[in-house]
Write a structure and sequence with these properties.
Radius of gyration: 20 Å
Structural class: alpha/beta
Order of helices and strands: EHEHEHEHHEHEHHEEEHEEEHEE
Number of strands: 14
CATH class: Alpha Beta
Distance between the termini: 27 Å
Shape: globular
CATH superfamily: Aldolase class I
CATH architecture: Alpha-Beta Barrel
Length: about 350
């Protein structure tokens, strides 16, 4: 049975950062809310070992966590990634977020190890724009990585596109791209200036919702986070003439992830995070709720996880509340003393 916080939110998923190193330097990156990533060749001393990661997963799986997503930085910089995936408890669904550059030649190995799904960051179908956004020249390598993931059976491969001023103009092209290509889905992720900075880059995500509503063949609401899914035909394709769900003509699926100032999104959050250096983190946006697992004994992991779940607070609507149209910190959480395993 999954553990629940005091707001009734069961924790069924965990995101584990395997490294804060990356071979990209994306202009919008917040590194799982921790700030800038480091270079790919920087020291690995502070990263959890494979044994520590697997121990954490074994403990939380016994406490009802059903899914794990490996993140970074770039998780494929870890040479022991196949080992970590293979040693993940078999009852857990395993996914990964990656920039895709290391997938060619390795995607099949990860599938054999037990990887179920993959998200690949792809913010534009334009080589120059991609280079400017990622500070890399790896555009073609990413396309090869997407192809490798599809060929390895990691379908549907989710393409992550952060939507903000530098990328908004490429949204129609990306939507057409997933509508035309089997095995792909698109996640349009709202830019988060509260942790990435540059508030002038943010756009009104409702404009994207409105555009997709006009473009979509059909629309549905997803239970998780109450997200909206848009099903789109390829350019020139006919829309459904009826509501017959057996109409199997080609459709692409586009989903918007819009957490900013969204109390409904936060009220439906069912995951906690683990930082690359071994701390539980209850909320992406917060930096005052990190908890060390000490020497990472199973007892310490269990105790710290339970405390992290118990102290989780919806960021929008509770930790932050609206006053006169502005989001301000709720006084109930100012200078709040949180328990720690060593106390």
């Amino acid at each position: 049975m999954p553990q629940s916080d005091e707001f009734g939110r069961e924790v069924t998923g965990i995101r584990v950062s395997l490294t804060d190193r990356c071979n990209f330097d994306c202009v919008y990156c917040h590194n799982e809310g921790l700030g800038d990533t480091r270079g790919p060749m920087d020291p690995q001393d502070e990263e959890m070992t494979a044994d520590e990661v697997v121990r954490i997963l074994a403990v939380v799986a016994a406490l009802g966590v059903e899914t794990v997503k490996f993140t970074g930085g770039e998780p494929m910089l870890r040479a022991d990634l196949p080992e970590i995936i293979a040693r993940t408890p078999p009852e857990m669904e395993v996914s990964m977020t990656t920039n895709g550059t290391f997938l060619p030649g390795r995607a099949a190995v990860l599938v054999d190890a037990g990887l179920d799904r993959v998200n690949i960051s792809q913010d534009a179908l334009d080589r120059e724009a991609f280079a400017e956004l990622t500070q890399s020249g790896a555009y073609d390598r990413v396309l090869e990585g997407v192809e490798a993931a599809v060929e390895a059976g990691l379908t549907p491969v989710k393409l992550n596109m952060v939507v903000f001023e530098p990328t908004a103009g490429y949204v129609p092209e990306m939507v057409d791209h997933v509508a035309e290509n089997e095995g792909l889905r698109l996640q349009l992720i709202e830019y988060m200036p509260e942790i990435a900075g540059h508030p002038e880059w943010a756009i009104e995500i409702d404009r994207v919702h409105d555009w997709l509503a006009d473009r979509a063949d059909r629309i549905e609401r997803r239970e998780m986070h109450h997200r909206t899914r848009y099903f789109v035909r390829p350019p020139g394709g006919n829309r459904r003439s009826t509501d017959d769900p057996t109409d199997e003509r080609r459709e692409g699926l586009v989903e918007i992830v819009d957490p900013v100032e969204n109390a409904e999104f936060c009220a439906n959050c069912h995951r906690v995070r683990v930082t690359h250096d071994g701390n539980f983190k209850g909320c992406l946006n917060r930096h005052d709720d990190h908890r060390s697992m000490g020497s990472m004994s199973r007892a310490e992991i269990r105790e710290t996880f339970t405390e992290t779940v118990t102290e989780r607070v919806p960021y929008y609507g509770e930790y932050l509340v609206q006053e006169d149209g502005e989001w301000v910190q709720n006084e109930a959480y100012i200078d709040r003393e949180l328990p720690h395993p060593q106390d």
